[in-house]
Each structure stands twice: as structure tokens, then as C-alpha cells.
Amino acid sequence: MIVRLIGSDTLTDAGYDVVEAGSADEALRILERHGDVEVLFTDIRMPGTMDGLELARVVHERWPAMKILITSGDTFPPRSAIADDGRFLPKPYSTEVLRREIDTLLTL
């Protein structure tokens, strides 16, 4: 949870509007209500009925324009597991690298 808070604070400080979800299921419910989300940033290991890779797959199918950034400190998925222009950010990462990855995704 602390990592999520650091990421959220980092992106908020960088000027992004951040919406947090505690599970993949909650993330989907939020996305159904907020049609203006531009980037999904998810850990592979997260609570809920699906992991972050499955969440990213579902999000890509339902909202194909949404950019996807996946992170993990212990699982390194093959490129084929990440949809289209999605990116993988291995942990640990600095706050500057996180900001740069989000900025890059938003320019694709």
C-alpha cells in the first residue's frame, strides 16, 4: 500500500489527476464511471478476481485508447503479455522514472 501511495503522491505532485483503486475489480468499476482516464498504472500482483496483467487485457479490450503501464518487483512478463503500446516498469523505480514513463505514454 505504501508503494501505491508514493506513486499516487508522485503523480499528483506532477500535476496529474490520480484515481486510486485497491483491487482490479474496483479499478474496473471506477473506469466504468470515469470515461476520461488516459492511463492505467497497475501492479501485476494486486487483490481481486484478476491480476494486473488480466486487468490490463480487459482494459485494453474495453478502452483501446487507454495507455497501460504495468509494474512489478518480482514478475517480469514477456512483451507479448502487455497489450500494444503498453509498457512495463520494473520495481524499484525512482519517482522521476515513473513521471517520465507516464509522460512518454501520454505522447504516444
Provide a descriptive summary of the structure in words.
This protein is of the alpha/beta class. The chain has one domain: Response regulator (Rossmann fold, 3-Layer(aba) Sandwich). It is 43% helix and 14% strand. It contains four helices and three strands. A three-stranded parallel beta sheet has the order 1-2-3, sandwiched between helices. Strand 1, helix 3 and strand 2 form a beta-alpha-beta unit. The longest helix is centred in the last third of the chain and has 13 residues. The model has no long low-confidence stretch (mean pLDDT 91). Pfam families: Response_reg. InterPro entries: Bact_response_regulator, CheY-like_superfamily, Sig_transdc_resp-reg_receiver. Keywords: Phosphoprotein.
**What is the helix tally?**
4
| Average predicted confidence as pLDDT | 91
What would you call the shape? globular
Main sheet strand line-up: 1-2-3
The CATH C-level class name: Alpha Beta
Order of helices and strands: HHEHEEH
Number of beta-strand segments: 3
* Low-confidence segments: none
Number of domains: 1
What is the percent of helical residues?
Answer: 40-55%
Q: Which architecture per CATH?
A: 3-Layer(aba) Sandwich
Looking at CATH, which topology would you report? Rossmann fold
The portion of residues forming beta strands comes to 5-15%
What does the radius of gyration come to?
A: 13 Å
CATH superfamily: Response regulator
**Class per helix and strand makeup:** alpha/beta
Please give the largest β-sheet.
3 strands, parallel
Q: Give the N-to-C terminal Cα separation.
A: 29 Å
Modified residues (4-aspartylphosphate): 43
GO biological process, one term: phosphorelay signal transduction system
Protein name: Response regulatory domain-containing protein
Domain Response regulatory: 1-106
